[in-house]
DNA sequence: AATGAATGAGCCTTCATTCAT
DNA sequence: TATGAATGAAGGCTCATTCAT
């Protein structure tokens, strides 16, 4: 909290706070609120992220970074089918973001910017690999394109977390992604 | 025409305008804008819907009303499986609301109020019937509950309309709902 | 002050307040301050003048309107020389605006907009007439162009009002404008 | 080089930068911007000039210092009339400050402080000498006081530099100062 | 002495809501 | 009942100033 002591730490705290607040209150949450949650002044938020959009982009990028990590790690899983569906489940269930993530995914302009674009490409590539392997293993329909997988993620991220019962939520998630399997 | 009917007409115009504006610009659209679109003053909007939330509720209720109508009509369809999936596709593809609808569905507080609750119950009942018949006909998994159907609707409404290519959108929709079918 | 009672009156009050406040505290004065002076809420200021620039333009336009009126009235004066110098003195001495007026005159972008442009043209024309007549009467150098007259006005408006002694201020003003006379 | 001279060099750089930035962007320019231009951190700016006002004063003082130098040098010119008018023209045309200079001159509080006061007195004295000599030589009206000369400088500094055409600007300047000459 | 991150007051602007007409 | 002007709380953002390093 002391000035200068660690700018990077503050940046991270703001990012964290933003993640939580956006998740809890939607993208409309005020910068003030985020600053409070991060334990810093508004000015600090704006110093690190000059615009609300920039903050949003950063949150989204951080989120996608994690996704990419997950996907890349799973690309080496011996069971390609399980790997893909694991990835999907983990992604949707991931604590925290939820709404903000999905919201951001669909907001025009966000996700197109220079901060997010590279990460997005990385995730896309990783998921494409996951998908390809799953298809070769016969665990996923042949006619599924990566873009569709992201639509599934988007939809599931939005809707499924609204279920509070753990078992039911898991079941619904599985069911929705079952649409990707061969019949 | 009597003042009574004048008022009724205005109410309808506002509701219509709200539907369009929310669909086009999101729930953040200003009341002013809705009034302009409806060709009335802001005051009139507030006379009919004392709060933005009330307006939202009314829009949602109207939307659900249509859904219920659809569902009830389809309940008499000779092919129960087709009936359910027709209903789902129609619901998601329905022009207009889309995002606003889904947004509203998940906003806490909305959909729980006295305006929406009854309609919601009606839709639920109608969809339950549709679902039950489809299950009896073997077109849908036995272990699906109505609640889950709504989660599917919610997710699909959010994500699928972001696809601009008509054929791809339809295919994705079908694929997602395929998760409801028996394997 | 009551809503609706007289929107036009409120607009005028805001304009008046803006004039005074800008004159007293410079163009940087806050809208809040202007609202307070006008006895209205900030929202009202923005309803009438959607932007600070718009308010500035309006103030400037109002000011120029008065100038144009003055100039046009004086164009019929039997003594062309006196007419021009009267106009100049009156313009500079005019209570109120002072700083804001001159500031606005030089701010790029302001004075070029659609609100100010027409009035500006009107003043220019009127002053051109005044100048022309004064030159024909031999009261002003032949080689003076209207543009230069405005530069004189601008400079004098800025500097002369800083003199508090009435007689000295008048004398200085006369002296400065003497530069326009034939030698 | 000793820390002493380091500090001195920095002070000068800041002053220089401030001069340029104020001239280019007006007194509203941010301290950050000035620091950047000077190639130092904001902290350094504030170490040397604890307040924006202090910085402004310093800039003004530096400017007046130059003026005083000019005036004192010209006091020995064999042609007293030419000397005064040369001084006036040079002062107004002086690249750099222009607007900021004039702004500062009229802002209450600035120019009255302990930093500026002494220099101001020095300029005043020097200009008084210049004026006196010019009057004795019959190049300037008898009834002109030093204060009025400064008002002329102020007004001309504000208005004349807005003219972009070199010849026209010079002519206008001459014309305005002609007001000081005997008729 | 220099640095620049942190701070928070303050600015412009938007918008739901009220209420005189 | 309809209207739209008025209101003021909030929101995003800027900037002078402080202070740990």
UniProtKB/TrEMBL annotation, chains A, B, C, D:
DNA-binding region(s) in UniProt:
30-49
Q: Name one GO molecular function term.
A: transcription cis-regulatory region binding
PROSITE patterns found in the cross-reference section: HTH_TETR_1, HTH_TETR_2
Tell me the keywords, alphabetical order.
Answer: DNA-binding, Transcription, Transcription regulation
In this chain the HTH tetR-type domain maps to 8-67
What residue stretch is flagged as signal peptide? none
Q: Write the protein's name.
A: TetR family transcriptional regulator
Species, as recorded: Actinocatenispora thailandica
């Amino acid at each position: 909290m002391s000035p200068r002591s660690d700018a990077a730490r503050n940046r991270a705290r703001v990012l964290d706070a933003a993640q939580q607040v956006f998740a809890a209150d939607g993208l409309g949450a005020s910068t003030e609120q985020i600053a409070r949650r991060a334990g810093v002044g508004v000015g600090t938020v704006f110093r690190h992220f000059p615009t609300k959009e920039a903050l949003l982009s950063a949150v989204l990028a951080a989120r996608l970074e994690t996704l990419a990590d997950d996907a890349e790690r799973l690309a080496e899983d011996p069971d390609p089918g399980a790997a893909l569906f694991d990835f999907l489940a983990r992604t949707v269930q991931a604590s925290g973001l939820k709404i903000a993530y999905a919201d951001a995914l669909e907001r025009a302009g966000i996700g197109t910017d220079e901060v997010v674009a590279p990460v997005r490409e990385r995730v896309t590539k990783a998921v494409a690999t996951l998908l390809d392997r799953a298809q070769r293993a016969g665990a996923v329909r042949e006619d599924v394109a990566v873009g569709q997988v992201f639509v599934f993620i988007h939809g599931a991220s939005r809707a499924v977390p609204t279920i509070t019962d753990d078992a039911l939520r898991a079941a619904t998630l599985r069911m929705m992604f079952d649409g990707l399997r061969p019949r």
